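Workshop exercise sheet. Pairs work together: one partner reads the sequence aloud, the other fills in the structure field after running the prediction. Swap roles for the next sheet.
Pair: D.N. / O.F.
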Amino acid sequence: MKKREVNFEVGDLVLAHLRKEIFPQRVYNKLKFKKIGPCRVLRKISENAYEIELPPDIGMSPIFNVADLYRYEKEQADDTT
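Structure field:
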């Protein structure tokens, strides 16, 4: 498996991939968002873990593995609308 090298700095904007496993039990359904963002990186915990600023009503841990984070680019958001 190919591992992607990604480093974020505090304050960077990211998109977070929301996997089924990270939702509390019985909360996930197919119609939920797949990615959420942009979210600001609050701190780097390790090479593989980051704490991000999530909306207060999301109800999940703000700690994400680097594999679930993607750099937010404004052009990327403009293409989806």
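Discussion prompt: The first helix runs from residue 74 to 80. What would you look at next?
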